[in-house]
Amino acid sequence: MNQIFARPKSLKDVPFRYCPGCHHGIIHRLVAEAIDFFDIREKTIGVAPVGCAVFAHEYFNIDMIEVAHGRPPAAVTGMKRARPENIIFSYQGDGDLASIGMAETIHAANRGENVSFIFVNNAIYGMTGGQMAPTTLAGQVTKTTPKGRDTRTDGFPLRVCELLATLDGTTYIERVAVNNPVNIKKARHAIRRAFQMQIETLGFSLVEVLSACPTNWKMTPLEANQWIEDIMTKTFPLGVYKERSE
User: What is the pTM of this model?
Assistant: First the structure.
């Protein structure tokens, strides 16, 4: 019998310790599959910051670097310029990339750095207990918005893909989700495309992944998956926002 499904070589054989229903495990696998697909494991370096993404080094079977909160764009820029032969990617949450690290994200994108970003958007600060994030939806209840996010005082959810797609330096920007098999298949293709862009030295690429946080959303995993489908995608529509071929 032929084996048709196995653990990617770029993932370590250890159990994930993310919360039940969290999508980080799925996203990790898709990233690892992309690394294996292009056979670039020995020259790939991942960068992860503070937040739930801080655990990434425990799971990826590649060289990983941990940096301060919000600083992966600076780290990947420095590493790629020093070692252009390596494939460098960042793995960041919304509380990191879209908040404390937003300025560095925008400038790395605007410079057209030849790196790949995996941006996990669960619309909340996960690791620190469920506070409002830049991507928290209008009306969404969090620890710091117990009556729901009020756009009159808290502003509106930050749409990273739409923002970065306007910059001349960006090459590939797509938003996907991993809440069902159809979306997972599309996310697999998008993540591979982001790495392909870097391999072909075409410039800055980012894949935003809508991800569930059942613990802080106060939902079951099934409810969280449905909430992404019914509610979250209305604020953050899925699709390709920019793709340049040269």
Answer: 0.95
